[in-house]
Amino acid sequence: MAQFQEHIITELLEDSNGGLVVTSAGLGLHKIISSLFLLHHHSQGCLLILSATPSQKASILRTYENVTQSQISDEVQNSPAEITSDLPANQRLSLYSSGGILFITSRILIVDLLTRRLPTTAVAGLIVLNAHLLSDTSTEAFIVRILRSTNRDLYVRAFSDRPHSMVSGFAKAERTLKCLFLRKLHLWPRFQVYVSQDLERDPPEVVDIRVPMSTYMIGIQKAVIEVMDACLKEMRKTNKVDVEDLTVENGLFKSFDEIVRRQLDPIWHTLGKRTKQLVSDLKTLRKLLDYLVRYDAVNYLKYLDSLRASESFRSVWIFAESSYKIFEYAKKRVYHFGRSDSGKLGQIKTASTKKRKLNDNKKDEDQSTSTENRVVLEEVLEEPPKWKVLLDVLMEIQEERDKRALSGEEKDHLDEGDDNGIVLVACKDEHSCIQLEDCITNGPQKVMREEWEKYLLSKVQLQALPKRNAKKAKELKGFGVLDGVVATAGKKAEVSSISKQEHDALLAAASEISKRINKDTNAEAGDQKHVDDGGFGKGKGKGKKKKSSAGEKTNNDVASTDKAMEGGFSDEVFLRKHDQGLDAESSSETKKLPPVVFYALESDQKILDILKPSTIIAYHPDIAFVREVEIYKAENPLRNVKVYFLFYEDSTEVQKFEASVRRENGAFESLIRQKSLMMIPVDQDGRCLGLDSSNEPQSVISQNLITRKAGGRREAEKEIQVIVDMREFMSSLPNVLHQKGMRIIPVTLEVGDYILSPLICVERKSIQDLFGSFASGRLYHQVEMMSRYYRIPVLLIEFSQDKSFSFQSASEIGDDVTPNSIISKLSLLVLHFPRLRIIWSRSLHATAEIFASLKANQDEPDEVKAIRVGVPSEEGVIENDVRAENYNTSAVELLRRLPGVTDSNYRVLMDGCKSLAELAMLPMERLAELMGGQKAAKMLRDFLDAKYPTLL
């Protein structure tokens, strides 16, 4: 453990109330938390850990186990346990009373607290991770408020390693402290004195390698940035977003989409389709920049093809001036397509050059399509420049080790630092790890050829889809942007014909590859199976299986390709292969490479302390991983650690890395200013009072008291209760209701989400859930059940506070009923269930006010009765019960369809007679009394007494 981590723990322990710790990314929070576990004793009570992600939990547990194994002591406690929904209530209670360390979800904990299964005095403290996600309406804040109200000795220690998220919104850090009832904010940036001293005392040896991008990669990056800048200029024209945030540098980060969307959410319904599409386009363009430096040329082209198919008729960015360069350069990285004059391969025309010739002179086009000319599809298969550099670095590492071994230095290194010789290569994702592993094993050229063959075979599989889909795609080809030309009505045929020739050439090339793979698969089926079972790690096996599965499908692929070629493309196709003979060279070089382990950064697993590598290659540099390497070296000063950083020179990769450092430093500077100015209300003992401390929650009855009555004495307040379904604790509404002074009773309800009184049942729907419930038909069933068992069924439609309070703009609401309109669906629902009441709520707090007004002058709901509503019973029919068996649904539906029976009198009829047979025997006077009039009674009597017509 580094010294600055010990300082963090010391600062936390100084305040018995706890504190909020915000650190830079990658400074080892899992080690700090595991050390806090060692300080906990079961006699204090249980220690609960909230909001831990699976990767965080795994890292904390692994670190804790390593520490406890090194300590030969009787005081070492058992390893932390995890409480899940699978554990029954009695087992959870025994774990709570054991005083151990427990990982638990906030949903389970709040239910156990409200049902009093967990005594608040049994909790010694809380550790809350990812504190940047908390708000005053979050369930974690609900838990802390309940525990603080009865347990004054409770400590809360919250952690976050996302400083930029702690400065989003107004006074985010201050509000987070208040909702956790904390006073102390501990800031630990990378530039803090203790941190910088520890990490810079004996830093690792760093080699910064700047890899030049290929010409086409530079062209694609420049084109994407130009298109992104054009989209940002269009966005600025709306005058509805903060212009300072709309920069290309901010656009490189994932949070940029969230920032723009957060600004536009309140007015989203007033925006036009173009502005909404621009928000989506900026996200797509950010991915294009990221994928350019992450993936190979073939996979990048495949991603662009999917974008062209899915977004070409909606996206704004595709119509930008520079967008055609993105598609054109990406294609040139993989293959060139053109014609050879009289069979010669000397002059190969690209698709764009040929297109200009077609547009200039159509007669020349007719002459050029003679049968003497052949279409040439030349493979390029440009390898990512980093691949060769990675192989060179690995060979260099091995050469240095060989030299040291010959000179006798290797033994000294082993004695000093226990060097195991592992080289760790850190990549962004699992796909990159698998591909690089294959590249080292089989050579770059073979990997690119496999990707190229998969790409061609995917074209064949698309061609084999039903004809109606292909016909639809063909009709749409004339619009949008295709190969750099904005297609108009006059150019539609020409653009489509060029694209078809190129497409058919790819199909012909795929046909050759399919036949060859089919032969290889049949000849080497046994050998291929043997290769699948072996190899280095699981990634290689996956790659081989994909290849074999592609080979198994080749019979159908060849047939579909031959069928596609019939009458479609008559010219001869010549496939010019790109083979530099590197496979043999690379395969011989792989024998000289050191042992390599690939690590995916997205898995967020802390493996440096496990593998203990001597050499680390940051293939995709990440700021958090850089700090992890620094801590790893600081904790192992005797180990010789060498780090290679691979950056694409003058790329957005470098810009994004440097911008992330600036953004983090700026966030900490803002937090330091906020810390000097924030005001936290405290009580006489110096404890934080939390949010809205000046206005303690009071019940509605106490707020409406007439103080002049009875000399100002307050009457005994009646506790306001709301029965809440267990599933509703995924939302923040129970928390807000508790803030308003209502008692929350969590139970499992079969009908409804909230029971406000014996008569009122509420089904709450968020906007997203409402659309989904209409699509699945679930809402109809839910309203039907509520109408059956409760007199006042209520559908609550709840909007988010930061979003628009409408489904759609008024101009989009039509006069007619349409199946796709949400307004039409709601209208039909109300027509079918006349007693249903729809309540529109602007926010969570507005919902709480509505519930309070609905509960005025109403009896409190019965918990036992609410649980039994709609639940099947094994005992059969029980008198005066509300279970499902006691309702003859078919008989009620028949009664409601009889003439004269309405929604206002059918319940009276059910109370007045026990069965339909008894109803048929009732005299006219009794019917008129029950149905509320002679007219309705006569309609029913005439219907019941009408003779059945005969055929004679």
Automatic annotation (TrEMBL):
Ranges in a coiled coil: none
Q: Where is the ERCC4 domain?
A: 721-801
Enumerate the UniProt keywords alphabetically. Answer: DNA damage, DNA repair, DNA-binding, Endonuclease, Hydrolase, Nuclease, Nucleus
UniProt keyword DNA damage, yes or no:
yes
| One CC-aspect GO term | nucleotide-excision repair factor 1 complex
Principal cellular location given in the protein's record: nucleus
User: Which CDD domains does the entry link to?
Assistant: XPF_nuclease_XPF_euk
In residue numbers, the region (Disordered) covers 350-372, 520-563
A molecular function annotated in GO for this UniProt entry is: single-stranded DNA binding
Set out the biological process GO terms recorded for this chain's protein: double-strand break repair via homologous recombination; nucleotide-excision repair involved in interstrand cross-link repair; resolution of meiotic recombination intermediates
State one Pfam family annotation.
ERCC4
Query: In which residue ranges is the amino acid composition biased (Basic residues)?
Result: 539-548
Instruction: Tell me the InterPro entries matching this sequence.
Output: ERCC4_domain, Restrct_endonuc-II-like, RuvA_2-like, XPF_nuclease
Q: Family, per the entry?
A: Belongs to the XPF family.
Name the record gives this protein? DNA repair endonuclease UVH1
